[in-house]
Design a protein that fits this description.
The complex is a heterodimer of chains A (786) and B (284).
Chain A (H helix, E strand, L loop, with lengths): L1 E2 L14 H5 L15 E7 L5 E7 L1 H4 L4 E6 H5 L27 E2 L5 E7 L2 H7 L4 E6 L6 H5 L14 E10 L2 H7 L2 E12 L8 E7 L4 E6 L4 H12 L6 E4 L15 H13 L3 E4 L2 H7 L3 E12 L5 E13 L25 E10 L13 H19 L3 H8 L8 E2 L5 E2 L4 H12 L1 H14 L3 E11 L7 H6 L8 E7 L5 E5 L8 H13 L6 E4 L17 H27 L7 E4 L2 E4 L2 E7 H10 L13 E5 L8 E11 L5 E11 L6 H20 L30 E5 L17 H18 L13 H12 L1
Parallel strand pairs in A: 1-23, 2-13, 11-12, 15-16, 21-22, 28-29
Antiparallel strand pairs in A: 2-6, 3-5, 3-7, 4-6, 8-16, 9-14, 10-11, 10-13, 14-15, 17-18, 19-27, 20-21, 20-26, 23-24, 24-25, 27-28
Helix pairs in contact in A: 10-11, 10-19, 15-16, 16-17, 18-19
Chain B lengths: L6 E3 L4 H11 L3 E4 L5 H6 L7 E4 L9 E4 L2 E5 L4 H6 L1 H6 L1 H7 L5 H6 L2 H7 L5 H8 L3 E6 L2 E6 H4 E3 L2 E2 L6 E8 L5 E7 L9 E10 L2 E10 L6 E2 L1 H7 L5 H8 L16 H19 L4
Parallel strand pairs in B: 1-3, 2-3
Antiparallel strand pairs in B: 4-5, 5-10, 6-7, 6-10, 8-9, 11-12, 12-13, 13-14
Helix pairs in contact in B: 5-8, 10-11, 11-12
Classes of the chains: A alpha+beta (786), B alpha+beta (284).
Chain lengths: 786, 284
């Protein structure tokens, strides 16, 4: 028997990672310095759309300290188009995307030239010496106008701005359902563009060994493994001569789930010059050059009966791809395609997504990636429907959600949710929130026509996470798989190395994987070290995004550790001269049933295996093990979020008065890390509701181009969060875990906007476009009054 | 971001600083706490050839009394202004408004003189010294001169200081017995005010005898709402204050930016003036 004693899983261990991070003993990519290091800077287009008539770098070359300068054309040879690995339809339009623009710039910030200098200051100064002649072309900014006949084109050679149209129809025919519905409701929502703000900006260092043609690429990336494969393809450097290292990485939120032109440029320049090179973006450069998130128009139609029973949902999306297709630009909105029906039962679902090219920075995955948009649409619409029907919004949800005894349940969009208990999470949230009391206060304020109104917003969400099943990814035309790799090594001294293919950038994998391995192996938590983020040290992996790391990578660690125990058991049985079946394994000790003095610790077994003096016949001298896990289903965290806001009707200012969330993420490995993930997620979701928006002017310039204009909230702007959990274990994996990286972001945005609209509904307000700035709220009130 | 190249000098006396500025002419810039100049340099919005760092010049910081006024050294940090007992006792409006500036890190580096010399109408303190009828003392090659606050703010990011003048002191008349409030409206804690209202109110016999209202970010310079001030005189209840506050935006020319439209700013000025005055007058 193998008895896994859970001493570590479930324990709020302080993170192993933190000591070196908070004492500054970090290796950010920008901290890396090697002899002879050169620095490059990129000249970027000041225009949204223009033909490049001429690029002349000669004046820059004459400046002291400048080593080289290249135009896009100079570097084009030897660099392929940047990759997009998610061609979502057969007839998708896939434009060419050179790492540096050659003939045309297609968004403000598109790079046109590079200077290489002995230091960063010299490089930055030399940019002004580069001469570029642009012939302006019309910007393409409006998603609907872009699809009209005769619209100016982002990629003239493609003849259209339509990238693709991807349909999904399940259940009954929506039109038929609409015919028999007693109520239908149409809404249009705008998901504004967001700019991811990782604490650490992007940075790249390349160190070449010219003689052997070997390259090491350091990058502030979420995906060292994927990056290696694709950089080999883009640059032609053989994959086995390219090592990719993601050192300490300070956040990503999807923005570093990307393969960037700067990474290819760094390799190309290092190859040309045979010298190590570095590039680090500034924050405002990143606002132009690092991909954006969201950016879509959602047309939603819901059909129901008067008693609130949902009949069908129609979703029509226009999604802003930006100027080019980056790694998974077209697929990102489709990660939400299956989530628009949320936790509700219905008979018809009709989904269409159209991708549109514009002359803006490309979009791609941003925390939640498709699912926040989906959750927003259904949860906003549920509140609207409740208002239309005169039902309490919680009651409307209760009448439609999947009941806990109905799991596993195949939802209308075709996914089978393995487990969940929406009743339990909601009941707990309502109690913590003191829902009835707040409703009473709301009525009271409404009756008094108080200047400050109270609103309550509800969001009951689920999400598909743990991006894994390779076969489902195949069906969605995603090029790669979704497995994850782990190996567990018992060292001769009894210490443990866990090698993971996940690539943490703030999540705390070193701590959590240590907890998982320590329990299975029965070794102290402190004795486990986790190796990651280096393709030489952790050669196999699919990296970190989409709340996949625990359900795929963490579970792979669990399985690999179990294999170690199985191998160790063979050695222990041999040493104890007992049958394997007679051995018990508890807390790291093998003992013979009935004679407890006959025992070997797993550390002793590790040393015996190292010496290999007395192993079972035919056994390889190792108890180390590897596991590659490719789960056959997603996981489905869910939860109920409730938000109370006070809206000052004179100024339009919104203040979040209380926020309660009860998340069900299944079994928890480390509650402190979960708490942190939820808090950060809530902050980002609330930021979309209230603060953040990438704003472009009519010429296509990004005018929210610095943190003074793009408002990222801080702790001072956020309320105390009341967070709690219910625990309905996932049935799809041995630990019952589901993932928590995106839950807060997915659930919170509609809770806040629902609350604001709820506060102002008595004044006649029906919707407010995000972010719900004070001015927009004030305008909505003024318009409703007149 | 990477600033352009510049020469740097760090004088140790006011005279040295003034000489350096005179030598540098139009291309010299004073570096005080660096909270405004450094971002401008890093974003390549300013290209001085010479930066004169007055951070090591002794005698430019601290608060002292001089008869009916407080004298605050130009290099006194926001943090020290907030904590100074003399400021709290005699110039509560300044302490209260300074406490809303940016975030603790900025308040520990940024200085009163620096934020006034920067003359940003979105800064909180220009409107406050304007409402307090403060005077600004500058030293130049020809000696010292005193500039009333209402003459100091000339245009957007432009003060009355000559290129070779160094702001050394801010003289703030004691406002003992005046009620005060700074009402700042902003979207996130560390962002600039969309609109701010600095109110000082002297009451007599339950009525407002005299009121001063300074407006942040309602034009190219900080402004006084004179029409509103006049209308407030004699106001005895909340309704009268509300009526007077309707005039708060008169004559202002607020900007359009990503935070707000001029129309909304004007609306806010009226609402916030009413609130600030009611609080200052203890009528709220």
């Amino acid at each position: 028997m193998t008895e896994t004693v859970e001493r570590e899983v479930g324990r709020a261990r302080p993170r192993k990672e933190d000591a070196h991070l908070i004492t500054g003993q970090t290796t950010w990519t920008d901290n890396i310095s090697v002899n002879g290091l050169l620095h490059f800077a990129l000249l970027r287009s000041p225009m949204a759309h223009a033909r490049i008539e001429r690029v002349d770098v000669s004046a820059a070359l004459e400046r002291p300290g400048i080593v080289a300068a290249f135009s896009g054309r100079d570097l084009a040879e030897g660099l392929a188009s940047m990759p997009c690995v998610w061609p979502v339809t057969e007839d998708i339009v896939m434009p060419d995307h050179p790492p540096i623009a050659v003939d045309e710039v297609r968004h403000a910030g598109d790079p046109v030239a590079v200077v290489v200098a002995r230091d960063r200051y010299t490089a930055a100064d030399a940019l002004e010496a580069i001469e570029v002649d642009y012939d302006p072309l019309p910007p393409v900014l409006d998603l609907e106008a872009a699809l009209a006949e005769g619209a100016p084109l982002v990629h003239a050679d493609k003849g259209t701005n339509r990238c693709y149209t991807w349909p999904l129809k399940t259940g009954e025919d929506f039109d038929a359902v609409r015919q028999r519905a007693e109520v239908t409701l149409k809404r249009r929502y705008h998901q504004q563009r967001l700019i991811p703000n990782a604490m650490e900006p992007r940075a790249v260092v390349v160190t070449p060994i010219a003689a052997s043609g070997e390259y090491t690429l350091y990058s502030s990336t979420q995906i060292p493994h994927i990056l290696r494969v694709l950089m080999a393809m883009v640059t032609g450097i053989p994959e086995n001569k390219l090592r990719v290292i993601a050192p300490d990485v300070g956040g990503g939120f999807g923005s570093k789930l990307q393969v960037y032109g700067e990474e290819a440029i760094a390799l190309a320049v290092a190859r040309r010059l045979g010298r190590p090179v570095k590039w680090t973006e500034s924050r405002s450069e990143g606002y132009l050059a690092t991909h954006h998130g969201r950016g879509m128009i959602q047309d939603i139609e819901i059909a129901a009966n008067r008693d609130g029973t949902l009949l069908g949902l129609k979703v029509d999306l226009l999604v802003d791809m930006g100027a080019y297709l980056m790694l998974i630009t077209p697929g990102t909105p489709l990660l939400g395609a299956f989530m628009y029906p949320g936790i509700y039962k219905m008979d018809a679902y009709d989904f269409t997504c159209t991708g549109v090219f514009t002359t803006r920075t490309p979009t791609d995955a941003y925390r939640g990636a498709g699912r926040p948009e989906a959750t927003f649409a259904i949860e906003r619409t549920m509140d609207e429907l409740a208002a239309e029907l005169g039902l309490d919004p919680v009651e409307l949800r209760r009448r439609n959600w999947i009941r806990h005894e109905e799991f596993p349940y195949t939802a209308i969009a075709g996914l089978t949710y393995d487990s969940g208990n929406y009743e339990a999470a909601t009941a707990k949230a309502l109690e913590l929130f003191d829902y009835d009391k707040l409703r009473a206060e709301q009525s009271d304020r409404n009756e008094r026509a108080d200047t400050v109104r109270l609103g309550i917003g509800v969001s009951t969400f689920t999400e598909m996470c743990g991006l894994a099943p390779s076969r489902i990814l195949r069906d969605l035309r995603y090029v790669a798989g979704g497995w994850e790799a782990a190996s567990v090594r018992m060292l001769p001294t009894g210490k443990v190395e866990v090698v993971t293919g996940t690539s943490p950038h703030g999540q705390g994998h070193a701590t959590c994987w240590s907890q998982i391995a320590a329990d299975v192996l029965g070794v102290p938590f402190e004795d486990v070290e986790v190796v990651h983020g280096d393709t030489k040290a952790a050669p196999q992996g699919m990296d970190t995004y989409g709340s996949r790391s625990l359900v795929v990578g963490g579970m792979a660690v669990h399985h690999a550790a179990r294999k170690v125990v199985d191998k160790a058991r063979k050695v222990a049985a041999h040493l104890l001269e007992a049958s394997e079946n007679d051995l018990e394994f508890t807390s790291g000790v093998f003992s013979v049933k009935g004679s407890p003095e006959a025992r070997r610790t797993i550390q002793e077994v590790a040393f015996e295996t190292f010496s290999s003096h007395d192993l079972p016949d035919g056994m390889e001298p190792t108890i180390n093990a590897e596991h590659l896990l490719d789960p056959d289903t997603f996981s489905y965290p869910h939860g109920t979020h409730l938000c109370a806001v006070e809206v000052d009707t004179e100024t339009g200012q919104t203040r979040i008065r209380s926020y309660v969330c009860v998340d069900d993420i299944g079994k928890v490995i480390n509650p402190m890390i979960v708490e942190g993930q939820v808090h950060g997620g809530l902050a980002q979701g609330i930021a979309q509701a209230l603060y953040e928006e990438a704003v472009y002017d009519e010429d296509g310039n990004l005018i929210s181009g610095t943190m003074a204009d793009y408002l990222v909230p801080s702790a001072a702007d956020l309320p105390d969060f009341v967070t709690d959990r219910t625990e309905t274990p996932a049935t799809s994996n041995a630990l019952g875990v589901k993932g928590v990286g995106e839950a807060g972001t997915i659930a919170s945005t509609p809770a806040v906007v629902n609350a604001i609209v709820d506060a102002l509904r008595p004044l006649g307000v029906r919707d407010i476009r995000m972010p719900c700035t004070p001015e927009r709220v004030w305008q909505a009130i003024e318009e409703a009054r007149s | 971001m990477i600033p352009p190249a510049f020469d740097y000098t760090r004088p140790t006396t006011v005279d040295e600083a003034v000489r350096a500025l005179a030598d540098g002419g139009e291309d010299a810039k004073v570096l005080a706490g660096g909270q405004s100049l450094l971002p401008l340099l890093r974003m390549r919005l300013a290209f001085p050839e010479l930066v004169v760092d007055v951070g090591r010049v002794p005698g430019l910081s601290g608060v002292r009394e001089d008869g009916d006024a407080l004298v605050i050294g130009a290099m006194t940090t926001h943090h020290d202004v907030i904590g100074a007992p003399l400021v709290r006792r005699h110039a509560g409006l300044l302490a209260a408004a300074t406490a809303t500036v940016a975030d603790p890190a900025v308040r520990h580096r940024g200085t009163l003189g620096g934020s006034l010399a920067h003359a940003d109408p979105a800064g909180d303190l220009p409107a406050v010294v304007l409402a307090m009828d403060a005077e600004l003392v500058a030293r130049g090659p020809g000696g010292t001169r005193t500039i009333p606050a209402r003459e100091f703010f000339v245009d957007y990011l432009q003060s009355a200081l000559a290129p070779d003048e160094l702001l050394t002191e801010v003289r703030v008349p004691k406002a003992d017995g005046w009620g005060f409030h700074y009402e700042k409206f902003h979207r996130v804690a560390q962002s600039w005010a969309i609109v701010g209202v600095a109110a000082l109110v002297r009451r007599d016999d339950g009525r407002i005898a005299e009121a001063r209202v300074g407006l942040t970010n309602m034009g190219g310079t900080p402004l006084r709402a004179y029409a509103c001030e006049e209308a407030l005189s004699g106001a005895g209840d909340a309704q009268a204050v509300a009526r007077a506050a309707q005039e708060a935006a008169d004559g202002t020319r607020p900007a359009q930016d990503t935070s707000a439209s001029p129309k909304y700013r004007a609306h806010l000025a009226r609402v916030l003036t009413r609130r600030a005055v009611l609080t200052a007058a203890g009528m709220g």
